[in-house]
Design brief:
By secondary structure, this protein is mostly beta strands. The chain is built from no helices and ten strands. The strands form two sheets. It has a six-stranded mixed sheet with strand order 2-10-9-4-5-6, with no helix packed on it. The protein has a four-stranded antiparallel sheet with strand order 1-3-8-7, with no helix packed on it. It is globular. The termini are far apart.
Length: 115
């Protein structure tokens, strides 16, 4: 059974930093691509980043230069380092497995940035 778990969210002031984790359990035979998304309180969902199984990451323009994805030595574990956080980054953050894996998603972790 595949499980995806995000963690590391919390409340910070503008300019602060958080590091989110995405751990995928139940997939050991392949390395998955991992995508991060965020959903705002108005239900709009934005793509944040995509990391290929080889470790190449692309970012949304809104987070480029502030957010960085890194891979753990454990397969299918990635981190989203978020620096220079802004109030508009406030959202529920989700990670999702992608090619070559099926699209499994976790329940998310809340990030709140106060001004």
């Amino acid at each position: 059974q595949v499980q995806v778990a995000e963690s590391g969210g919390g409340s910070v002031q503008a300019g602060g930093s958080l590091r989110l984790s995405c751990i995928v359990r139940g997939i050991t035979s392949v390395t998955c691509g991992i995508e991060w998304y965020r959903q705002f309180s108005g239900k709009q969902r934005d793509w944040v980043s995509t990391t290929t199984p080889e470790g190449y990451t692309t970012y949304a323009d809104s987070v480029k230069g502030r957010f960085t994805v890194s891979k753990d030595k454990s397969p299918n574990t990635v981190y989203l380092q978020m620096n220079s956080l802004k109030p508009e980054d406030t959202a529920m953050y989700f990670c999702k497995t992608s090619t070559p894996c099926w699209g499994y998603r976790g329940s998310g972790t809340q990030v709140t940035v106060s001004s």
